[in-house]
């Protein structure tokens, strides 16, 4: 059995008779009868220069014929093989992948020596494969000599959290939660951060907000298990006409039948500067936000090899038609009613769209941006699937203080006016022209946590109540479980002002909301504490 992260256990099935197999790992002794003790002696054949050769040793990346007297399986353990450069002869070649599944479309053929449909597998009959499976061999025809590169990486276990999620230990302790009313910077008359003392048990918190890559991994797992479905929202409301991910009837009660993620999510469009003076952001002329504030998780119900849900590529016109996405209408004087007599477009107002597609972020970059357009139900669904939790208000604020009583939830408790301490609206723009950025942006706080301040608002487990703090002075591990119709969110976001970055700053929203600045992070209790 593999005992470290550089080792792999790869099961190789074989049938009675001839099999097309390969060695998917690096081993110290590659004798085929040690690897496949049930094979028939003298029946291992390679194919080189159009000639079959009897072999005794196996090499990763090569395909072989081998005869078995009966069906069975061997688990081969060795060093993982993730990349192979394979020399090709003109004509037919026997090749294989390493330790992981590879889509044939992902094989690198810089010399153009492989024709479409040139691969064949064998399972008792020849077939045209879509993927190369570890431990299996394949025929491939090359139109000239050259090299191909077969690269892969470990497939993620859908039943487990994405492997890129890292937890940091947060020690137990007692701290002062809230702030004095004289220090409060929220709207007049809204003070809700009453000072009180709280004791917390030790816990672990994800070092970053959950990313697009990590959330799409969850959606694939939930979809595979029949817990989510995708359909068009037809009911009147802010999401009417959008394609949403919903919890199914089989999902836990907490989100069954509820929308959890908006696949059609786009930038917030409203009258930010209130030029018409009516204090209604959904009347009058719109000041559009940055078009990069958009949902980056896509869905293809037929693409099982891609996992149904995937991170979309900003430079791929099949994923994003930026000209179309920058069309918009102003509002009339009636709230939420569009003035469809004049179609506007601000494509050329954004430097990210200039010199298309060279200024756009790559798919790898947006994979590491925080997942947005997450409704509270979507954050909760994630935690329920993996048996973890959203932070409580107390846990979040304690982690933001980082054992140092930080006023702001930044790396050192201060805020720099140049935006280097957090991703927030430091230029005080109306609207802010920014967008979310990498979850590892800037330095971590003393607990190893990134972007507790800014980037996205983070959903919290607690129900919001203005006076909840008043009754929890001296409490241990407090959490507000009394429904109020509002869930807490913390930390501010890329388009909000400095006051929201404070460790003690509270905010709230309905749990069915979630736009381009709503995300979350997660916590768990380690049994070793």
Describe the structure.
The protein has 3 domains: 7-151, no CATH class; 167-210 and 386-524, paralog of FGE (formylglycine-generating enzyme) (Alpha-Beta Complex); 212-367, no CATH class. It has helices spanning 32-35, 212-224, 322-325, 363-367, 376-386, 393-401; strands at 7-14, 17-22, 25-26, 45-48, 51-54, 63-68, 72-80, 83-88, 91-95, 102-103, 114-122, 126-127, 131-132, 138-142, 146-151, 167-170, 173-177, 196-200, 203-206, 228-232, 243-247, 259-262, 297-299, 309-311, 327-328, 344-345, 457-463, 475-476, 487-490, 507-509, 518-519, 523-524. The chain starts with 6 loop residues before the first strand and ends in a 5-residue tail after the last strand. Strands 9-14-11-12 form a 4-stranded antiparallel beta sheet, with no helix packed on it. It is mainly beta. Strand 11 and strand 12 (126-127) form a beta hairpin.
